[in-house]
Amino acid sequence: MSLATLHSIATVAAFTAFLAIVWWAYSPRNRKRFEEDAKLALDDDLNDEKVADVTDLSDASRRDKDNK
């Protein structure tokens, strides 16, 4: 197998992977999930809860370190 053949196979494989990712990203069954994920950063109530959860976790980890 020549080097040119390997390059051709790699190119076709990469292009096929690219097309598969594009198809997955734009498929109708993922549309709702992606739209919800896009709005996630704009949802203040949910972000406030997540920040509180992260703060609680970091406080708990600090307490664990202090107890050691």
From TrEMBL:
Pfam families: FixQ. The chain crosses the membrane at residues 6-26. InterPro entries: Cbb3-typ_cyt_oxidase_comp. The lineage of its organism: Bacteria, Pseudomonadati, Pseudomonadota, Gammaproteobacteria, Moraxellales. It comes from the Bacteria. Keywords: Membrane, Transmembrane, Transmembrane helix. It comes from Faucicola atlantae. CDD domains: cbb3_Oxidase_CcoQ. This is Cbb3-type cytochrome oxidase, subunit 3.
